[in-house]
Amino acid sequence: MHDYRFPQLLDVKQAYQRIMAYIHHTPILTSEAIEKMADCQLYFKCENLQKVGAFKARGATNAILKLPPELKQNGVATHSSGNHAAALARAAFETGTTAYIVMPSNAPAIKKAAVKSYGGKIIECEPNLKARETTLEKVVEETGAAFIPPYDYMDVIEGQATCALEMWDEGIPFDAIITPVGGGGLLAGTALTTHYISPRTEVYGAEPKGADDAQRSFKAKEIIPMENPSTIADGLLTSLGQRNFILISKHVKDILTVTDEEIIAAMRLVFERMKLVIEPSSAVPLAAVLANKGLFRNKKVGIIISGGNVDVSKLPFQ
């Protein structure tokens, strides 16, 4: 059994006050054309316009700001192939400390460049979880840096939960909110905030069929780690975190899966109709709504667009 203390609504509100000066309050946008296709009202929370181009800025900033000074003085460290890496590097820079980021050798060049631009120190490793973890252990040992996990960490979940807090502050009576799910930090945080503010609202996770460990874990009521995931949504390759899984099991209605073809079509739709740059992972919730029209018909649905860090020279629909 776990003895985790999960954040209360007051904790989420305090996290928001803590990180407010370091993040953007991102807009909610709508699209009549996409609503017609979906048969429901859609409200897109644009975290692709967030600092570092992703919601991860929230959790990383909250986690660093909550670290006691003595733990912060030797810097912070993590392993990440993408947005958490950039978010932690930026949060470290903004708060006057150093970030050591273990990244797989095949991480997208755009994401490595982002980490470097924020002064993060990249340590490359083989592209598998074991190599990530052993390399990170070595880095922590050598530097004395504090490890800040990408998603399975209470202060990170609490920070990600502020995204839904902003959504609820808009006064929209959402019937459902849907987010992508990889490690589960965003989905867990969204479900937690929504449970406190509007328990009748259904929260859904959306993930690629080629990386469907969250759906399988959700149905089996135990974590089934992902082996050899294969999807264009590179931000959703990680397996669910333990803390995230507990919150998702408790407060999420269902987890829907979509094909890569559906993800690419939804991504293209957002580019063309909304003029927004989004990454494949961000298109997964819209793809899930379009693939499950009966579930969302005539409802007010909030969709979190999780990030916009895509290599525009390699768009999948070109």
Strand order of the largest sheet: 1-2-10-7-8-9
Helix/strand-derived class? alpha/beta
CATH architecture of the largest domain: 3-Layer(aba) Sandwich
The helix count comes to 14
Spell the H/E element sequence: HEHEHHEHEHEHEHEHEHHEHHHE
Residue share in β-strands: 15-25%
Strand count: 10
Which oligomeric state applies? single chain
Structure description:
The chain has helices spanning 9-19, 32-38, 56-66, 69-72, 83-94, 109-117, 129-143, 154-169, 185-197, 213-220, 242-251, 260-274, 280-291, 293-296; strands at 28-29, 41-46, 76-79, 99-104, 121-125, 146-147, 176-180, 202-208, 254-258, 300-305. Strands 1-2-10-7-8-9 form a six-stranded mixed β-sheet, with helices on both faces. The chain has a four-stranded parallel β-sheet with strand order 5-4-3-6, sandwiched between helices. Strand 4, helix 6 and strand 5 form a beta-alpha-beta unit. With 318 residues, the chain is of the alpha/beta class. The protein folds into two domains: 9-54 and 153-314, Rossmann fold (3-Layer(aba) Sandwich), CATH 3.40.50; 68-147, Rossmann fold (3-Layer(aba) Sandwich), CATH 3.40.50.1100. Helix 1 (9-19) crosses helix 8, helix 3 packs across helix 8 (154-169) and helix 5 (83-94) packs parallel to helix 6 (109-117).
Summarize the structure.
It is built from 14 helices and 10 strands. The chain has 318 residues and is an alpha/beta fold. It is globular and about 55 Å long.
